[in-house]
Design brief:
482 residues, alpha+beta, Chloramphenicol Acetyltransferase, six-stranded mixed sheet, 15 helices
Length: 482
């Protein structure tokens, strides 16, 4: 049995009938390179059967501790049923991008069944490109961006013929724990809560402003954090060397209210060479350009809807803190950083320059933060009230007087720059499908792969019915910099 960390458990705690905690990815596969020129659900099941010994999280099922006395556990599901997890469907003609986006949005709007391993895979036929869509849906409690990429790396090959697989580490089968055993584990875990809290205090308190989702609703937490940070710098002789925190206050927009249970998904590509040409022209990074064109697209959308704030928006940017030693451990190893998104800047070149400066400061702040900050912050909440506290924080951020900690998520995930294959079918694109929450109803995630950037946009169905126009805004944002 493997216990979830506090950060893993947070993604379970945030789930409500309107808000889900799973992430997904839409891979577009060219079946013409597969054996026989086709790709079916049976082919994917055969691939999974071959590689399941290397992918233990796909067999893990959740085991809850009674009364929420401690964080849940993962156990190896003794009744694992692969047929339940792999599904197949087809789009009606003509199978446009919009139809595919609508189908993906419907699937990701549905919660995962917690009585089974928390993942599903859908093979979607009938797209007008001739490619087969493979939608993988897995709970964020199991994986973050990097560990999700590890799982996909074990399903993908460098050649259509596949590869010789590494030997799997033998896994001991878990017995089915009963209520009494789980209650005993929970009671044993109760004394560990104050110990976890005490260990977390020195790292978390000086950095409370970098965990706004946890500490934002606690009166006086910012003041305590600033004093603790100053004391820490003085004690270590680093006063003035750590980048100063800039107080970022997120203005409210249409996509910062209470979300519904339904989603919209839009996706598209741009060439990596075009983005690199802009990067070289202005002396910045690919990530700077991605964030700046996202700001341009959101600015256009806000102008079109007559709600452009005078101040910048605040973007959440997830940053991996997974070390080489933690590869293959799955779960979550991330920090959530805050940066201003300069939607209030009318000049595109100045917007890029300010974005570059803001991201540089963010990187310096990130280096100064403890890697376990989010886990440490979560240790301030006893497991028994963890879910209620997490939902209360989001409810406060969407109330009439509250402000969201962030307006939207922007994430840029680097990927391999060479062709990959799944069951012999060539991967043509890999569009991310990520999470939105109350108070943060827009997510723009991009994944680079084989010479292009694959954008996946997720929004609340009611808040942003014209989400595809935001995708057009990304292309316009790149064009004005070119």
């Amino acid at each position: 049995m493997r216990q979830l960390t506090s950060l893993d458990a947070q993604f379970l705690a945030l789930e409500t009938p309107r808000q889900s905690g799973h992430v997904a990815g839409l891979a577009m596969l060219d079946a013409s390179t597969a054996p026989g020129g086709k790709l079916s659900g049976a082919d994917i099941e055969a691939l999974l059967i071959e590689r399941l010994p290397l992918l233990p999280p796909l067999r893990w099922r959740l085991a809850e501790v009674p009364f929420g006395l401690d964080y849940p556990y993962w156990i190896d599901d003794p009744e694992f049923d692969l047929d339940f997890h792999v599904r197949e469907l087809a789009l009606a003609p003509p199978g446009s991008d919009e139809q595919l986006g609508e189908q993906v949005a419907r699937i990701v709007s549905r919660p995962l069944d917690r009585s089974r391993p928390l993942w599903e895979l859908y093979l979607i036929h009938g797209h007008e490109s001739g490619c087969v869509g493979m939608l993988t849906k897995i709970h964020h409690a199991l994986v973050d961006g990097m560990s999700g990429a590890e799982i996909m790396g074990l399903l993908l090959d460098l050649e259509p013929e596949g590869r010789e697989l590494p030997k799997a580490v033998p896994q001991g089968g878990d017995h089915e724990p009963g209520e009494v055993e789980m209650l005993a584990r929970g009671l044993l875990g109760v004394p560990r809560y104050p110990l976890r809290l005490l260990r977390s205090l020195p790292r978390a308190i000086p950095n409370v402003e970098d965990a706004p989702a946890i500490f934002g609703s606690i009166p006086g937490s910012s003041t305590v954090g600033r004093l603790a940070a100053q004391a820490q710098r003085l004690a270590s002789g680093r006063n003035g060397q750590t980048p100063a925190r800039t107080k970022l206050v997120a203005p409210k927009t249409t996509f910062n209210g209470r979300i519904s249970a339904h989603r919209r998904f839009a996706f598209g590509q741009m060439t990596l060479d075009a983005v690199k040409a802009v990067k070289n022209q202005y002396g910045c990074t690919v990530n700077d350009v991605v964030v700046a064109i996202a700001a341009s697209a959101v600015r256009r959308w806000l102008i079109d809807h007559d709600e452009l704030p005078d101040e910048p928006l605040v973007a959440q940017i997830p940053v991996s803190v997974r070390t080489d030693d933690e590869l293959g451990t799955y779960g979550n190893r991330i920090l959530l950083m805050s940066v201003p998104l300069f939607t209030n800047e009318p000049d595109p070149v100045e917007r890029l320059r300010r974005t570059h400066d803001a991201l540089k400061v963010m990187k310096e702040r990130y280096k100064a933060l403890p890697a376990q900050l989010l886990q440490d912050a979560n240790h301030f909440i006893p497991p028994a009230v963890f879910a209620r506290a997490a939902r209360l924080t989001f409810r406060l951020s969407t109330s009439g007087s509250g402000r969201p900690a962030w307006n939207l998520v922007i994430s840029n995930v680097p990927g391999p720059q060479f062709p990959l294959y799944c069951a012999g079918a060539q991967l043509k694109a890999n569009y991310p499908v990520s999470v939105i929450t109350d108070g943060m109803g827009l997510n723009i995630t991009v994944m680079s792969y084989d010479g292009h950037l694959d954008f996946g946009l997720v929004a609340d169905r009611d808040q942003m019915p014209d989400l595809w126009s935001l995708l057009e805004g990304l292309d316009e944002g790149l064009a004005e910099l070119q």
